[in-house]
Amino acid sequence: MNINNEFIGIRNIVREDMDFIQKLWGDEESMLASGGPYMIRDEDKDDLFTILNKGQAISNHYMISVGDQLIGDLSIRDHSDDKAQLDMKIMNDERNKGYGKQALSLILDYFFNELGGKEVYFELWLVNYFANKKLKDYGFEATSVTEDYNVMTLTRENYQESALKR
Fold first, then answer.
1. Tell me: the pLDDT tens digits for 14-51?
2. SS (H, E, C) 86-124
3. CA 79 distance to own-chain centroid
4. Residue 88's closest CA among 70, 63, 112?
5. Given strand 69-77, what is the order of strands in its sheet?
6. Bridge partners of 11?
7. Which regions of the chain does DSSP assign to beta strands (E)?
Protein backbone atom coordinates (compact mmCIF):
# COMPACT_ATOMS: atom_id res chain seq x y z
CA MET A 1 0.00 0.00 0.00
CA ASN A 2 1.18 3.46 -0.81
CA ILE A 3 -1.25 6.31 -0.07
CA ASN A 4 -0.60 10.02 0.11
CA ASN A 5 -2.28 13.34 0.49
CA GLU A 6 -0.73 16.78 0.26
CA PHE A 7 0.74 16.45 3.78
CA ILE A 8 1.38 12.81 4.69
CA GLY A 9 2.48 9.60 3.04
CA ILE A 10 1.89 6.05 4.25
CA ARG A 11 3.74 3.19 2.58
CA ASN A 12 4.85 -0.37 3.17
CA ILE A 13 7.97 -0.84 5.25
CA VAL A 14 11.22 -1.58 3.42
CA ARG A 15 14.46 -2.94 4.86
CA GLU A 16 16.11 0.50 4.82
CA ASP A 17 13.47 1.73 7.32
CA MET A 18 14.86 -0.44 10.11
CA ASP A 19 17.31 2.25 11.25
CA PHE A 20 14.36 4.58 11.79
CA ILE A 21 12.33 1.85 13.55
CA GLN A 22 15.31 1.21 15.82
CA LYS A 23 15.46 4.93 16.64
CA LEU A 24 11.68 5.36 17.10
CA TRP A 25 11.09 2.28 19.22
CA GLY A 26 14.18 3.01 21.31
CA ASP A 27 13.21 6.62 22.02
CA GLU A 28 11.94 6.88 25.58
CA GLU A 29 9.81 10.00 25.02
CA SER A 30 8.20 8.63 21.86
CA MET A 31 7.42 5.26 23.43
CA LEU A 32 6.50 6.36 26.95
CA ALA A 33 2.74 5.88 26.51
CA SER A 34 3.22 2.64 24.55
CA GLY A 35 4.79 0.74 27.41
CA GLY A 36 8.27 2.19 27.20
CA PRO A 37 11.17 1.96 24.77
CA TYR A 38 11.95 -1.27 22.96
CA MET A 39 15.63 -1.56 22.21
CA ILE A 40 16.51 -3.24 18.92
CA ARG A 41 20.06 -4.51 18.54
CA ASP A 42 21.69 -3.98 15.15
CA GLU A 43 22.04 -7.73 14.67
CA ASP A 44 18.26 -8.19 15.18
CA LYS A 45 17.07 -5.69 12.56
CA ASP A 46 16.92 -8.20 9.68
CA ASP A 47 14.90 -10.69 11.72
CA LEU A 48 12.54 -7.97 12.92
CA PHE A 49 12.07 -6.72 9.37
CA THR A 50 11.04 -10.25 8.33
CA ILE A 51 8.41 -10.22 11.11
CA LEU A 52 7.11 -6.72 10.30
CA ASN A 53 7.02 -7.01 6.51
CA LYS A 54 4.02 -8.96 5.24
CA GLY A 55 4.48 -8.07 1.59
CA GLN A 56 1.32 -6.67 0.06
CA ALA A 57 -1.07 -7.92 2.77
CA ILE A 58 -3.22 -5.23 4.39
CA SER A 59 -2.27 -6.57 7.85
CA ASN A 60 1.20 -5.08 7.68
CA HIS A 61 3.61 -2.52 9.03
CA TYR A 62 3.75 0.90 7.34
CA MET A 63 5.91 3.98 7.51
CA ILE A 64 4.54 7.51 7.90
CA SER A 65 6.41 10.31 6.20
CA VAL A 66 6.22 14.03 5.62
CA GLY A 67 7.98 14.66 2.34
CA ASP A 68 11.07 12.46 2.41
CA GLN A 69 11.32 12.45 6.22
CA LEU A 70 10.06 9.47 8.21
CA ILE A 71 8.12 10.62 11.28
CA GLY A 72 6.39 7.48 12.54
CA ASP A 73 4.97 4.07 11.90
CA LEU A 74 1.56 2.45 11.62
CA SER A 75 0.50 -1.14 11.81
CA ILE A 76 -2.72 -2.81 10.83
CA ARG A 77 -3.26 -6.03 12.75
CA ASP A 78 -5.99 -8.62 12.89
CA HIS A 79 -7.56 -7.38 9.68
CA SER A 80 -10.65 -9.29 8.76
CA ASP A 81 -13.14 -8.52 6.05
CA ASP A 82 -14.61 -5.69 8.04
CA LYS A 83 -12.55 -4.99 11.18
CA ALA A 84 -8.92 -4.05 11.93
CA GLN A 85 -6.74 -3.10 14.88
CA LEU A 86 -4.52 -0.05 14.33
CA ASP A 87 -1.39 1.05 16.14
CA MET A 88 0.41 4.30 15.36
CA LYS A 89 3.51 5.96 16.76
CA ILE A 90 4.86 9.41 15.88
CA MET A 91 8.35 10.57 16.92
CA ASN A 92 8.04 12.78 19.98
CA ASP A 93 9.70 15.78 18.31
CA GLU A 94 7.19 15.55 15.41
CA ARG A 95 4.09 15.54 17.61
CA ASN A 96 1.62 18.40 17.97
CA LYS A 97 2.04 19.36 14.32
CA GLY A 98 -1.16 17.67 13.09
CA TYR A 99 0.69 14.75 11.49
CA GLY A 100 -1.04 12.07 13.59
CA LYS A 101 -4.47 13.38 12.67
CA GLN A 102 -3.51 13.56 8.99
CA ALA A 103 -2.11 10.02 8.98
CA LEU A 104 -5.15 8.68 10.81
CA SER A 105 -7.49 10.46 8.43
CA LEU A 106 -5.62 9.03 5.44
CA ILE A 107 -5.64 5.42 6.67
CA LEU A 108 -9.28 5.59 7.78
CA ASP A 109 -10.35 6.97 4.42
CA TYR A 110 -8.51 4.09 2.73
CA PHE A 111 -9.86 1.45 5.12
CA PHE A 112 -13.50 2.56 5.10
CA ASN A 113 -13.85 3.82 1.53
CA GLU A 114 -11.39 1.73 -0.50
CA LEU A 115 -11.46 -1.56 1.42
CA GLY A 116 -15.06 -1.31 2.62
CA GLY A 117 -14.10 -1.86 6.27
CA LYS A 118 -16.72 -1.48 8.97
CA GLU A 119 -14.74 -0.95 12.18
CA VAL A 120 -11.27 -0.03 13.43
CA TYR A 121 -9.95 0.00 16.95
CA PHE A 122 -6.93 0.97 19.01
CA GLU A 123 -5.85 -0.62 22.28
CA LEU A 124 -4.39 2.21 24.38
CA TRP A 125 -2.84 2.21 27.81
CA LEU A 126 -5.01 4.20 30.19
CA VAL A 127 -2.03 6.43 30.98
CA ASN A 128 -1.97 7.54 27.34
CA TYR A 129 -4.37 10.36 28.18
CA PHE A 130 -3.53 12.42 25.10
CA ALA A 131 -4.28 9.67 22.58
CA ASN A 132 -7.40 8.56 24.44
CA LYS A 133 -8.73 12.12 24.42
CA LYS A 134 -7.81 12.76 20.78
CA LEU A 135 -9.45 9.55 19.59
CA LYS A 136 -12.59 10.44 21.55
CA ASP A 137 -12.56 13.91 19.95
CA TYR A 138 -12.32 12.18 16.55
CA GLY A 139 -15.42 10.07 17.15
CA PHE A 140 -13.91 6.90 18.64
CA GLU A 141 -15.75 5.35 21.56
CA ALA A 142 -14.38 3.33 24.46
CA THR A 143 -15.89 -0.11 23.83
CA SER A 144 -13.90 -1.94 26.48
CA VAL A 145 -12.08 -0.71 29.56
CA THR A 146 -9.80 -2.85 31.68
CA GLU A 147 -7.47 -2.01 34.56
CA ASP A 148 -4.71 -1.18 32.10
CA TYR A 149 -6.12 -0.18 28.73
CA ASN A 150 -9.06 1.09 26.68
CA VAL A 151 -10.26 -0.29 23.41
CA MET A 152 -11.22 2.75 21.35
CA THR A 153 -13.45 1.87 18.39
CA LEU A 154 -14.66 3.78 15.34
CA THR A 155 -17.33 2.38 13.04
CA ARG A 156 -17.78 3.36 9.41
CA GLU A 157 -21.04 5.13 10.32
CA ASN A 158 -19.36 7.20 13.05
CA TYR A 159 -16.43 7.91 10.74
CA GLN A 160 -18.80 9.53 8.23
CA GLU A 161 -19.74 12.04 10.94
CA SER A 162 -16.26 12.44 12.45
CA ALA A 163 -13.72 15.25 12.43
CA LEU A 164 -11.44 12.91 10.46
CA LYS A 165 -13.66 12.65 7.40
CA ARG A 166 -11.91 14.29 4.47
1. 999 999 999 999 999 999 878 889 999 999 999 999 99
2. EEEEECHHHCCCCHHHHHHHHHHHHHHHHCCCCEEEEEE
3. 14
4. 63
5. 2-4, 9-12, 61-66, 69-77, 83-90, 119-125, 149-155, 141-145
6. 2, 63
7. 2-4, 9-12, 61-66, 69-77, 83-90, 119-125, 141-145, 149-155
